[in-house]
Specification:
The chain has 422 residues and is mainly beta. 11% of the residues lie in helices and 38% in strands. The strands form seven sheets. The protein has a five-stranded antiparallel beta sheet with strand order 1-26-25-24-23. A four-stranded antiparallel beta sheet has the order 2-29-28-27. It has a four-stranded antiparallel beta sheet with strand order 3-4-5-6, with no helix packed on it.
Length: 422
């Protein structure tokens, strides 16, 4: 027992110090072959491919027993309108048995079909689909087998599970391939700032919806030197933890320039009180820390207050990743994109009070997985935050889902901290 404790203490105090100006050391720490790693096991297998997608949705049911995922029989190309994939769940207490729950014709590689457990419900599963030339949402009760169909697709569901925010997936599909859906034409494809496309609120009980913000409204808010022919869209919407506000990215691009530009805004739940969070370059992934603060990767990890001032606090320097807070708000779990000649994606925990990183694993991604059909780790936490599920191709049988045991690493950290304080 004493030997194990000493080993744990050595492990914890060998973390990479990730204070300001130390991004290189952090990256070296989490990518070194000698770095401690958490146990990892595959919970899906070939010949078909499985993944979940984004990191800000409930993949685990409230008990932590069932894990949602999608199943497809091809990789390496964009989805077409006639591609139908399966949605299902893995039973972690029954040999990781895969059970199909339904099918969908509305999906993408990066965010799937917005598959998720409905917040606050032990039995309802939600995903987007396509029917009669329009995108819709299915809600399945896995206990009764009954399915309801809502007239519009979802993007992010409120913490209480009553409402969802939605976006224009047809427009996103051609503005940012990999995030929208094929199969429905965008009537505003040639309109730069449409007045009838934007973010809407969908009542998940009644199916009623109403537009909250249009692209034209947000695009008309003054900003630094936009080209007159830019094409605008919304992407990456997320409710605040208290359900009173939401965050979204306003993006625009011009064929004459490479890439796109981004501004981040928040708004109240009714679409009012719009606040600019930041328009600085490099805005990417984000996560609400609480109802008033947002952690954003913008060249590094920064903390912003949702007050419209634009002030930022550097949290730590690190490559872009997909971050989620553990319930105690002392830890985050995040990842990196492929790095180095071996194209390693690194998964790690970050301890905010000590500004230290704990490596959890390294996962190689071959170069053919790039661009629209890359396979990001996108770590998603179990309800007790003792496990994380990731999508990865490192096992050699295409994209599959893997369960990472992070509980032992957290226990070792707590134990080592207790010993150090004696």
């Amino acid at each position: 027992m004493k030997a194990r404790l000493i080993a744990a203490i050595v492990c914890i105090f060998s973390w990479g110090v990730a204070a300001k100006g130390d991004a290189k050391q952090l990256l070296e720490t989490i990518s070194t072959p000698q770095a401690p790693a958490a146990p990892v096991r595959a919970i899906t297998r070939g010949p078909k491919f499985h993944w979940f997608g984004y990191y800000d949705k409930l993949q685990f049911d409230p008990t932590g027993r069932y894990v949602l995922g999608m199943e497809v029989d091809f990789e390496g190309r964009s989805p077409r309108a006639d591609d139908v994939i399966a949605v299902g769940r893995v039973d972690l207490k029954d040999g990781d048995k895969w059970v199909e729950l339904g099918r969908t014709r509305a999906w993408c590689w990066q965010q799937g079909c917005m598959l998720q457990w409905r917040p606050g419900s032990p039995n309802e599963v939600m995903w987007n689909d396509r029917e009669d030339g329009r995108f819709i949402c299915r809600i399945l009760n896995v206990a009764t087998g009954k399915t309801r169909t809502l007239p519009r697709p979802i993007y992010h569901v409120s913490p209480d599970g009553r409402f969802a925010l939605g976006a224009d997936f047809a427009r996103i599909n051609h503005c940012r391939p990999g995030y929208g859906y094929a199969g429905v034409d965008d009537p505003d494809r040639d309109v730069l700032r449409p007045k009838d496309s934007g973010i809407y609120l969908l009542d998940l009980e009644t199916g009623d919806s109403r537009t909250l913000l249009t692209i034209a409204r947000i695009a008309d808010i003054p900003y630094a030197d936009p080209a007159p022919q830019d094409k605008h869209w919304f992407n990456h919407i997320q409710w605040s933890p208290d359900g009173k506000r939401f965050i979204f990215l306003h993006r625009w691009s011009n064929p004459a320039r490479k890439g796109f530009q981004t501004r981040m805004f928040t708004a109240s739940a009714d679409g009012g009180d719009v606040r600019l969070v930041t328009d600085k370059p490099g805005v990417s992934h984000f996560e609400w820390r609480d109802a008033e603060h947002i952690t954003i990767h913008r060249t590094n990890y920064y903390l912003y207050r949702d007050d419209g001032t634009g002030r930022e606090e550097l949290m730590w320097e690190a490559p872009n990743g997909h971050q989620s807070y553990l319930p105690d708000k002392q830890w985050l779990v995040t990842d990196t994109y492929p790095k180095g000649k071996d194209r390693l994606q690194c998964l790690y925990l970050y301890h905010l009070p000590t500004r230290r990183a704990m490596p959890l694993g390294r996962f190689a991604q071959p170069k053919e997985y790039s661009g629209e059909w890359r396979c990001d780790l996108h770590p998603r936490l179990s309800p007790d935050a003792r496990r994380a599920c990731i999508d990865s191709v490192h096992g050699g049988d295409g994209r599959q889902m893997y369960l990472v045991d992070i509980g032992g690493a957290l226990d070792a950290a707590d134990q080592a901290g207790t010993e150090a304080g004696r």
